[in-house]
Write a structure and sequence with these properties.
The chain is built from 10 helices and 10 strands. The chain is an alpha+beta fold. The longest helix is centred in the last third of the chain and has 27 residues. The two termini are 43 Å apart.
Amino acid sequence: MSVTVIQSGRHARKRVRMREMCGTDELRAAAGEVPELLRGLLAPTNVDDLDTNELDEVTVSDRDRLLATLYTESFGDVVTCRNGCTRCGEAFELELSMQDLCEQMMAGGDGRCRRGAHGDYATEAGTRFRLPTLADQSRLTGLPQERTLAVLRERCVEHEADGEDVEELMAEVGPLLDLELSATCPHCDADLSIPFEISQFFRLAMARERTWLVREVHRLATSYRWSLSEILALPRSLRREHVALAEAEAAARRRRT
């Protein structure tokens, strides 16, 4: 079980306890169903833990940190970004640390905002706002892109003082794991800027694993005669241990024949 501490918004300092993903969760992740995924993973054990009724009030910033935790638990700290050079067109890979990316995400900001008792923020100049939440994001579904920012401002910004940029202030108190990474093409030495956005990256990583999940389900169904629902309910690590045992037994039988 993982524990992540909420950093922003209404539930700052609460702990988020999440159980290990199972096959059903992995399919949700591959489909990009992030709120449903997180809701199913929550495993609160005391009153100081975030519960399912509070999940919609989690900020998008803390959602990104939760996805980073899930990625690290599933794949380790190494992040591999596959890219094509905009100058020479050659493909290359960029390896990074998820921990370093999270530290880069949280860096910066000069503390201009103070957080209120209900998770809102204010500056001395009078700007008042709250951070976008998962509930806000669900309201944006289906809206044209050009309306998204306007709707978010309507929902989240109470007042923007002259000379202050509320979007800049939001990024200070609720940074996103949505970064522009610097890289050098290994083929032509071009300086490149590589976009990295955790929700999209995590979804694609889980989507690539879907083929392996299907194979693992087939192996366990063939070996143990378990049902699909039973296999998909297994924690990811336990499922893979059973697959390894089934593969080892199959290999031993082939050697004997």
